[in-house]
Design a protein that fits this description.
Layout: E1 6-8, E2 11-13, H1 19-40, E3 46-50, H2 54-66, E4 71-75, H3 78-84, H4 89-108
Parallel strand pairs: 3-4
Antiparallel strand pairs: 1-2
Length: about 110
């Protein structure tokens, strides 16, 4: 979502960790999404968000405001899975496959 790498106190941070920063970055994020849609020439019927928490909440809110995609699906972020849920990786693989199948079905609808 955010094309910038952010650091605070020498550590990586997420764009949504600071509400005032998020407000400052919103226009950059919106422009980045629009550029990706235009340059990749992708379908806008469905988007898959990697991150089920705040990343999804931000994308969903921006999508409601700017109407980038008809539907936004969410999946657990791969880093989260590998760090905290690795013993359930097969379940997450199945969720990824199911989500992709739903996305394909949505893209093929008239």
């Amino acid at each position: 979502m955010c094309p910038l790498g952010l650091i605070r106190n020498g550590r990586n941070m997420n764009y949504y960790d600071d509400k005032s920063l998020m407000k400052s970055l919103e226009d950059i994020i919106v422009e980045n999404i629009r550029k990706q849609i235009d340059q990749i020439d992708c379908h806008t019927k469905v988007a898959i968000c990697l991150g089920e928490g705040q990343n999804y909440q931000v994308l969903n809110k921006l999508n409601q405001k700017h109407h980038f995609f008809d539907t936004v699906l969410k999946l657990a972020h791969p880093r989260y899975i590998m760090q905290y849920k690795q013993k359930f990786i097969q379940t997450y693989i199945e969720k990824y496959i199911d989500c992709c199948q739903i996305a394909v079905k949505l893209c093929n609808e008239q």
